[in-house]
Design brief:
This protein is an alpha/beta fold. It is 34% helix and 18% strand.
Length: 357
């Protein structure tokens, strides 16, 4: 009878120590294994050269290492890199490397598909198959980091949880992945270089405040009245703007971290000066800064990119009223790697027929 092996990276170092003690092994072996898994990123037990052959064989018989691999890599004309990441069960997620003058940013996924149905987002049209484990999220970061070094000779500087999925609906594993990324037994990155983006799950924003997280928070806002936001983001029906404002203020009180509002400007929908005034009013309710984002059209064509003139007028209105505003230009549009475009348009996903909603 076959025995299902447990993924060894799902164990804490203390759990591994206890396991080894029960099996008559020395407890310090757990720390050696842990270092191989998280710092040296071993993907097989054979690589763990300071363990005895017998112990390596024992680990192989009882555990698995469900490592992620890159099945396809596309490079944009602007040097953005999109990676199709193959998981151990053959599901696929996409991760992106965004090179800029002073930054090298990894955009990573937290779910296979997405739990939500935002109307303007290609990922929202994919069925959510499952949440990613912390080690799968960690692997994405390592693989994108390696791509940055190989292709551009640069180190990874920032991480954004803005890929496929809603991170706050996979809270435990996302938090575990950040713990590993920031730990000195992991990648040792600063939490201030990490941003988690949410469509707006008020109770989980409150929980982040209670947990006093150290990383940055971004809210995908895109409209500042409930009627309009309900149209494009059904999650707003159960997480109203008033509820989100309360949750964000609680988050700021507990963490001292200013939230970033992400605002995509859609043609003739939310790009007027009236919309800018609503955004200004909402931003004054919460300690915040604003990223205005160019829209990247998706296949259904329901929403379109606003004109440069309207985008400039919108941005200038906010700036003149003392708001901290950044205008984010799209990157990687030619390979469907830009914000909102991740929809598993890759060979492996096509072969596996990843389902749509």
């Amino acid at each position: 009878m076959s025995v299902t092996k447990k993924d060894i990276r799902g164990f804490s170092v203390l759990e591994l120590e206890n396991y080894f003690k029960e099996k008559g092994e020395k407890a310090f072996r757990a720390k050696q294994v842990y270092q191989w898994l998280w710092q040296k990123r071993a993907t097989t037990f054979d690589e763990m050269s300071n363990l005895s052959k017998e112990l390596r064989e024992f680990l192989q018989e009882n555990f698995s290492i469900n490592a992620v691999s890159i099945s396809e890599m596309q490079i944009s004309k602007d040097k953005t890199i999109k990676c199709a990441m193959k998981l151990h069960d053959n599901y696929v997620v996409e991760s992106v490397l965004i090179p800029q003058d002073k930054r090298m940013t990894a955009c990573i996924s937290s779910q296979v598909g997405c739990s939500l149905t935002c109307k303007f987002c290609a990922t929202g049209k994919l069925k959510r198959m499952r949440n990613l484990n912390a080690d799968e999220i960690f692997d994405q970061v390592v693989l994108v980091r390696d791509a940055a070094k190989e292709k551009y000779g640069a180190s990874l500087s920032n991480i954004v949880y803005m890929g496929m999925g809603e991170p706050l609906l996979n809270y435990t594993e996302v938090m575990r992945s950040i713990e590993k990324i920031t730990s000195q037994t992991g990648l040792g990155m600063s939490a201030k270089k990490i941003t988690v983006s949410t469509a707006g799950v008020a109770k989980m924003i409150v929980k982040m405040g209670e947990d006093q997280v150290k990383f940055n928070l971004a809210l995908s806002l895109h409209a500042c009245n409930d009627e309009k936001r309900n149209q494009i983001m059904p999650i707003n029906e159960t997480n109203s703007l008033d509820n989100l404002a309360d949750a964000l203020n609680f988050f700021y009180d507990k963490t001292g971290t200013r939230v970033t509002f992400e605002y995509i400007a859609f043609k003739d929908f939310n790009d007027s000066l009236k919309d800018a005034k609503e955004l200004l009013d909402f931003s004054r309710r919460v300690k915040s800064k604003i990223n205005i984002i160019e829209y990247n059209p998706i296949d259904d064509g329901e929403y379109q990119q606003t004109s440069p003139e309207r985008l400039d007028a919108f941005t200038q209105f906010l700036l003149k009223n003392g708001v901290i505003v950044n205008l984010r230009r799209s990157r990687g549009k030619d390979i469907d790697a830009a914000c909102g475009q991740l929809a598993n348009k890759n060979k492996l996903a096509d072969e596996l027929s990843i389902p749509k909603k």
